[in-house]
Amino acid sequence: MRNIRLFWQIFPVCIGITLASMLAVVWLASTTSHSFFIDRLKDEIRERALLIEPTIATLSGGEDRPFQDLVRQVGRRAATRITVIDGNGTVLADSDEDHLLMDNHARRPEVEPALTGEIGYAMRHSRTLGETMLYAAIPVILGPDQHRGALRLAIPATSIENMLASLYKKMVGIGLAVAMLAGLLSLYSARRISRPLEEMKRGAEHMTSGRIDQLVRIDSGRMSAEMASLAASINKMAEQINRRIWIIIQQRNELEAVFASMADSVVAIDADKKIIRMNQVAAALFALPAETVKGKAVEGVIRNASLLEMIDCTLGHNPPQERKVTLFSGADPIILQVHAVPLRDEDNRSMGVLLVMSDLTKLNRLETIRQDFVANVSHELKTPITAIKGYVETLLDGALDDADTARRFLGIVVRQTNRLDAIVDDLLTLSRIENQENKEEIALEPGEVGPVFAGAVQTCAVLTNAKDIVLQVQCDQEVMVAMNQPLLEQAVINLLKNAIAYSPHGSVVSLSCQESGAGAGERKAHLAVIDNGPGIAREHLPRLFERFYRCDKARSRDLGGTGLGLAIVKHIAQIHHGTVEVASAPGQGSTFTIILPAIDLP
Question: What's the confidence (pLDDT) of residue 518?
Answer without folding.
Answer: 65
